[in-house]
């Protein structure tokens, strides 16, 4: 099974083994890209940054993830 489907199982197993008063600082799933894509053209970098800004301005968007490496 993919790791993200095992998250609840791991969390439950840890909770069963650790003391009840254990506090978690953070519990989340993070997807990390396995490959990166370089963007070297200045015009493409500008366009990509505008796209990211538009996504971040959207109230419905909580997080933006990408695999772009911006090389100026």
Describe the structure in your own words:
With 72 residues, the chain is mainly α. The chain has one domain (3-70). The protein is 38% helix and 8% strand. The chain is built from two helices and two strands. Helix 2 links the parallel strand 1 (37-39) and strand 2.
Layout of secondary structure:
Blueprint: H1 7-17, E1 37-39, H2 42-57, E2 68-70
Parallel strand pairs: 1-2
Q: How many E strands? A: 2
Unreliable residue stretches: none
Write down the overall mean pLDDT.
89
The number of helical elements comes to 2
Query: Strand sequence of the main sheet, in spatial order?
Result: 1-2
Give the topology string: H per helix, E per strand.
Answer: HEHE
Supply database-style keywords.
2 strands, mainly alpha, 72 residues, 2 helices
Outline of this structure?
The chain is mostly helical and 72 residues long. The protein is 38% helix and 8% strand.
